[in-house]
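@channel anyone free to eyeball this complex?
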Amino acid sequence: MKILVCISSVPDTTSKINFTSDKSALDTNGIQFIINPYDEFVLTKAIKLREQHGGTVTVAHVGPANNEPTLRKALAIGADDAIRVDAEATDSFFVANELATIAKDFDLIMAGRESIDYNGGSVPAMIAEILDLGLINGCTGLEINGSNVSGEREIEGGKESLSASLPIVIAGQKGLVEESDLLIPNMRGIMTARTKPLNVVTAQANEERTVSISFEKPAERASCKLVESGNEAELVALLHNEAKAI
Amino acid sequence: MSVLVFAESWDGKFKKGTFEAVTYAHETAKKLGVSTTAVTIGKLADDAAQLGNYGADKVICISNNINTCDSQGMSAAIAEIANKEGASLVIIANSNTGKTIAPRLAVKLSAGFISNVVDTPSNDTPFTVKKKAFSGKAFENAQCNNDKCVLALAPNAFHIVETAGSATVESFDAANRVSKVTSTNVEKATGKISLAEAEIVVSAGRGLKGPENWGMVEELAELLGAGTACSKPVSDIGWRPHAEHVGQTGKAVAPNLYIAIGISGAIQHLAGVNSSKVMVVINTDPEAPFFKSADYGIIGDAFEVVPRLIEEIRNFKANN
Ligand SMILES: Cc1cc2nc3c(=O)[nH]c(=O)nc-3n(C[C@H](O)[C@H](O)[C@H](O)COP(=O)(O)OP(=O)(O)OC[C@H]3O[C@@H](n4cnc5c(N)ncnc54)[C@H](O)[C@@H]3O)c2cc1C
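replying in thread with the prediction:
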């Protein structure tokens, strides 16, 4: 089974987000980039599926050369090879098109359900549409048996079991594997990752349908009004009269 | 031309996010000087014409019963209507279902796609709109280069506005397709309030010491008609289900009122909840970072404060 895992490179979750002085882009000064947390669950699941069924795990990423450490980390965790499409990932349709071009040769195409930077949550569904494939979005459980796929997804107030067949697109999250099962690179992994293939391909001239104009930060809140412990009645009154929240 | 809005239903009933989306579509259509057309899919228990109360001029009911796991079938059916109506703008609530069909629809219509939209368009040529970015840590003003655009709206970002309007209702048979994904079983917790749509969320963290102590959290939530949430470690240790995990790597919520009990207020937690209109924190530690982000706080032991708060809210409810 050939498995493709689409990886995005995002600011570390502890990052304070700031923008360049003209507010047109993220200020990357001092920001550590990591594998998108949702993609980590998917990558670990892909490696477990390879252990069960044989095959290969390829990671793919659309981004500039300075994102390569993220791909090397994925190789160190256990992917067999990596593909980087050499382009700035600015628009989700552009990224999906690039990834779909690569994905058409794979049996199982996996990605995190959204990236924590631009939060489009759209690339997996777009890949599925471009390639005319089925999709399990927000996937929390996955088993493969021959070409049969059984999956689980979160729905409003519950969960749903699904069946489908390969090839398929899976947009995954926690539950695919548990947090405690996430694979992390060991010394041997880090060493071998250096020599695993990382192929760089040029982008097709795909169209960009959206563009970022500017960024802004949420308004600061006024300072916190403290109520004495024991005086919960006052809190209830404030929430009713002042905040109009109850 | 018209603005098209997908009026999502769940078990035949319209959702809160549906009314938000129809309101949004109506307000945008008014600005553009065009009409608002709503689309429903499958059997309805609710009356389709009621969407007129939120500004729809016309409701087209797709009669095919398409399972929500068939995102391809749903988006294809909506695309048929979008083409028939000549819609250049399609509005969809960013619910579980909406998230899955909106990007597909954008590909089908050769449209630009902008998700997690929080405001009506600031410009219509080119189309420019504000969306959430960096998991709640920022907003982005995004512009669509295409003449068609699909927008997915963040939940709880718009007030539902009722109008005196009325809508005509027509039925439509979409082309039948074979779904590539089929549903084999559904497990639903009954009576649970959807976290994404809840007006009030009661959330608790590791400060509660163990899963056996969640009784008071559930009691407070039930009293307030609230959804229940938790911090990431609480779901990782298995004290609460993953579906309750809120934050940068869990669900984003934006209720009117968010009550955080025994949660320290780590940057990843705050990212997912700071769109809440009012935040209350209950924590023993005056240095907990949550106090810097909350509107109201009590420095105190949750095991004393929460039972008293429940009593006071019960008194309040009895008198109001
Ligand atoms: C990649 C990554 C992603 C993450 N994503 C998320 C995310 O999406 N969501 C999330 O929540 N976290 C996330 N985290 C974890 C985050 O950094 C914090 O560790 C977590 O939010 C802390 O949870 P907590 O507040 O419940 O626990 P703690 O930090 O342990 O805080 C417990 C709090 O309870 C208080 N307390 C103790 N006893 C009492 C009492 N009796 N009464 C009242 N208060 C009491 C303490 O003073 C303390 O402030 C992420 C971390 C990483 C590395």
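from a first look: Chain B touches chain A through 98 residues (CB under 8 Å).
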